[in-house]
Amino acid sequence: MIFKSEKQVYNKMADKLVAEWTLDTGTQMVTHTKENDVVTKRCFWRDCVRYHLNYRAENAPESLQKLVNEGKIQAYLEDLEIRVVDAVNEQEQKLMDNDKDYQAAVSVGNLNAAGSIGNVLQAKAEEMVYQTIVYVIDLQYKCNTKKE
Hints:
Number of strands: 6
Low-confidence stretches: 141-148
Order of helices and strands: EEEEEEHHHHHH
Distance between the termini: 26 Å
Largest sheet: 4 strands, antiparallel
Number of helices: 6
Mean pLDDT: 91
Shape: elongated
Strand order of the largest sheet: 1-4-5-6
Strand content: 15-25%
Structural class: alpha+beta
Radius of gyration: 20 Å
């Protein structure tokens, strides 16, 4: 899905008005066009951003449109990416600290077993974090729309 901001700027190269901000959920790309024909593109490649964009596009496209209109979409996705990666790393560390099989593999130096178990624990951590951060609709946005 492609979301374009309501605000438009004149692009001399194309000789037409174009959206100041554009979000393409298919490529996870945010495009920002400025008045002086400077176009910046930011592509997000992490799965958490892709899953979140697809989830919100399907369940609350108006919330994405609002972020695009306000020019906050890039900062929002950058913040999401940081929060998810940090939360997954933190959760994974907690799981490793409490997993007896992982601790035993590490203590005897069995790197293959530790790596295999670590991969499973990382997948568990991602699943836990994604349910609480990625597959949600911004509650602040819902609260703000009720006031308007």
